[in-house]
Fold:
Amino acid sequence: MRPYEWMLSYTGQKEWIEGQGVFLWLAFFFVELGAGVYLVSLFLGNLLGMFIGWLITLVLGCGCHVLFLGQPLRAWRAFFRPQTSWISRGMIFVTGFTVFGVIQMGLLYLDRTPWMGFLTVLTGILSFLVVIYGGFAMNFVNGIPLWNTPLLPILYTVASLWGGCEVALVIALKGRDFSTVETIEFWIRLLLILFVFLVVVYLWSVRYSSPAGKYSFAQLLKGNLAWPFYLGVVMIGIGIPVLIIVYALSVGIGSMPIEVWLFTVLCGLAGDLAMRYCILKAGYYAPLIPLSPY
Amino acid sequence: MTRWGMVIDIQKCIGCYSCMISCKQEHFLPPNVFWNRIIIGESGKYPGVRKHIYPVLCNHCSEVPCVKACPTGATQRREDGIVFINYEECMGCRYCLVACPYQQRTFYRNEGEEYFPGQGLTDYERLGKRLKPYQKGTVFKCTFCSEKIDQGIKHGLKPGVDLEATPACVTACPAKARIFGNLEDPESEVSKLIRTKKGLQLHPEYGTDPSVYYLIY
Structure:
């Protein structure tokens, strides 16, 4: 693009998805997925699941955040601006979650119960806040209509909890805990239906929000993002899990091989990742001046 | 009270890029970085085509999304309305960059880039690295030439009137399309122009209340 063509037509944001920005996409995904796994495992009382969720958030999520930052050694400064900045709030939530999470898991492992009720509530709230902050951080950007909608944080929250349930399902399958498998599978079904409903309503609302929103919608469904959207989100993320779940319900959940469930979980996670990619990539700003491109 | 602002008369702008070049020169900006831009668009169809030239820069908004977004407090708004970045505090998360609906911020990533690749730095570039040591991995943007303004005021000069205390893009404009002054002073030239010629802000629907106004008549 030449300097005189800057923001003359709809301009896609690049900093949070291209080049080093890829790490932010992965960071949001892993941080929220890990917190989702922790939250679901906390609900089910599964210590291994909690540990895996905590590890995903800390190692993969925070690791990607560090790789994304231009000056990571200054990240500590982000603790002091929670009044207005969602990134700052997110940093506090993630830190609180990792610190109190390890305390809770340590006490659980040692079979000690002092403060456990308080810790359960605290880590439950903190992991939920970690799940929601990414959506709110993007929702704050009012120049991008695709992000500036209250449906986005809800969609991200549902996607993270869905991912959390999927990973918890794998852990339960590995432990051959079939009563838990049935409970989680029920939640996965519910969250999958909710996810599909939210994706449709979200895209529909963006389509009629503003011309830039309409442009983003067109890029997702007919433009250069149609491939990742249809293949990643619709086919792999929704289509395959729906087909397998319907088949599993018809033949009995217990009779499905573990490998098939693993494949379903991988498809669901890939779909979540693809959805986040599409939403980041399809974030377009309106032109600075109301003219046709030069 | 002072709130520095700028009025850009679109009818007077001849699209000579003086503002863009003088800004790059004043701030020793690295290759491919522009704090001031001239954007050129067309409307209509042949033979009734019209060419539109819009100089754009950081709007130094009153309701600043970049300041609110910044998690470290590196981006701040001074009492005189100038929005600035403290490079020492920026952690390079680029949230401000994404939050700016006008996209007037740049992430500095290519520290070693030369104006003449493979031929080493020129004397000008070496001087720039000494005088304006921008930090790799941080965000930067137009400062309204706050250094000139501050120095000028210290020496009893009036920004917008005295050239030494006025942003480089304003002093460089040969068509006098840019006017700088205090938006809070009803008697300043900028306030009078905005009042009489109905100055417009870019995308007022964002609710950012920019300090840069355009005269389109």
Chain A has one domain: 9-285. Residues 9-285 of chain A form a domain with the Formate dehydrogenase/DMSO reductase fold fold (CATH 1.20.1630.10).
